[in-house]
Model the fold of this input.
Amino acid sequence: MKLIGKSILKSFYQRMAAPAPDIYLQKGFYRLHDLIKSHKASPPKIAIDIRKDIIMLPYTGGTTGQPKGVMLTHYNMIAALEMMRRYFPMLEEGNGNVLAYMPFYHAAGHITCVISGILEGGTLIVLTTRISTIS
Done:
C-alpha cells in the first residue's frame, strides 16, 4: 500500500479535505436540524405500495459490465435495515455512530451507511479522505 501512497493518488486524496465546521455560516449552506426547526411539516398525502413502489434506482455494471438500474422498493430498504438490526443487536436506536467509508453511490454504502444512519437516528461520520492502516 505504500507504493500507492507515493503515487499520483497521494496528492489527489490530500486535496479531498473535509470542509471547515463553520461552512454552514456561508450563504447557501444549511444545517438539516435548523431547516427542520424553521419549516412546518406539511407533507402531501401519498399512497405508497411498499412492495411495488421504487424508492431508489442505483446503477451498477453487475456481472455484464453494462450499466443498468436496479429497482429497489421501500420494502427492500426496510428489509435491509432489519437485517442490519439483526446482525448488530448490540446497537441502540438513536445512540450510535455510523462510520461511512463506502461510497454512497454503491447500494451497500447507501443502505448500510446513509439509510441505517438516518432511520436509526445515528450520527453519520463521513470519511472524505482515504485512510490507510497498512504500512
